[in-house]
Request: fold
Amino acid sequence: MFISSAFAQTAPAAAGGDMQSSLMSMLPLVLMFVVLYFVMIRPQMKKQKEHRAMIEALAKGDEVATVGGMLGKVSKLGEGYLTLEVAPNVEVQIQRSAVVLVLPKGSIK
Reply:
């Protein structure tokens, strides 16, 4: 009983100090979000931009690797799809976004 009434009788804090302390308590949270942005979000956006540029630059005859591990030469290009020649006279149609890597010429024999 005595403790609860003692807490109720504490002196009110000054108005200017209260605002400053609330800003200082938010500072670590803001800094954490800034670090999170530069460590995780920005590199991921850069990687997505590079992948999009690689997919847009695909040309007929390029040798590519897909997400599933399939290797082949690009034989036809469409808007959202492309056709890979994975073996002589064997063609597979895949989504452009499934291309992971453009291989150097002559990699596929």
In short: The radius of gyration is 29 Å. Residues 14-54 form one domain. The mean pLDDT is 87.
